[in-house]
Specification:
single chain, OB fold (Dihydrolipoamide Acetyltransferase, E2P), five-stranded mixed beta barrel, 7 strands
C-alpha cells in the first residue's frame, strides 16, 4: 500500500489499496443496521460525468457522513472483488473534514 500525494480524483481510483485523500460531495447515504460496515453511500467530484458516482463504505463507528455535504476524506482505494466495485473505504480513525467550499 502506497500513500498518494495530494488530492486524488475519484476517476483515478483503481482498487490499488493505496491510501488516498479525496474531496467529494456525498450524493446518497445508506445507514446500515449492522456491526460493520456502519454506513455506505455514493460520492462524486468534478472528475466525473453527471451520471457517475463512486461508492464509499464507513467502518469507523464514530464517523457518519451527511448527504449533500462536501468532505475531504482520507481512506483506502479499494476493490470489492465480489462485484468488481471500486470504493473509498473509511476505516477506524479515518480523517474526515466537512468543508464549506461546496465545489467538488
Amino acid at each position: 500500500m502506497a500513500v498518494r500525494e495530494g488530492l486524488t480524483q475519484l476517476t483515478d481510483l483503481s482498487g490499488s489499496g493505496d491510501n488516498v485523500l479525496v474531496k467529494a460531495l456525498v450524493t446518497h447515504i445508506q445507514d446500515l443496521d449492522s456491526h460493520k460496515p456502519y454506513q455506505k453511500g455514493l460520492l462524486r467530484d468534478r472528475s466525473m460525468s453527471d451520471d457517475e458516482v463512486r461508492p464509499f463504505v464507513v467502518y469507523d463507528e464514530d464517523l457518519r457522513l451527511d448527504k449533500g455535504k462536501v468532505y475531504v476524506l482520507n481512506g483506502t482505494d479499494y476493490e470489492y472483488t465480489k462485484t468488481g466495485e471500486i470504493q473509498v473505504v473509511l476505516g477506524e480513525d479515518a480523517y474526515c473534514e466537512e468543508i464549506t467550499d461546496t465545489t467538488e
